[in-house]
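Z., the sequence and structure:
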Amino acid sequence: MSDIEAKKALEEFLAAFNAQDQEGAIAKLHFPFFWIINNRVIFVPEPSKFRVPSKELAESEGWHRSEFDFMEVVHASEEKVHIKLAYSRYKADGTRYATHQGLWIVIKKDGRWGLTCQSNFM
């Protein structure tokens, strides 16, 4: 059951990300939050320090939306799930222009599931 809830939290996070919904994205995270992109670690200590970067992606890459290509649970317990995944970025005309793989960690804290660490290969 924890894997289903963890995947649902990621789907909801991505929907908020795509909508450029700052509050919706934050609601699917736990803090402190870590983003690991290649060998760069970004530490986000609290919700007020988190910014959905979709506006910047739209301006710099022509990004329109992202979609998960697959999600595979690698490890799961009642309060933590590691999910190996891939997601792709799309332009407004539907052209896929990038695909990235990662390992995302979702935890249950204070009664809710949220993403706490996102490690991506770009």
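The chain has a mean pLDDT of 95. The first helix runs from residue 2 to 18.

Let me know what you think.
H.
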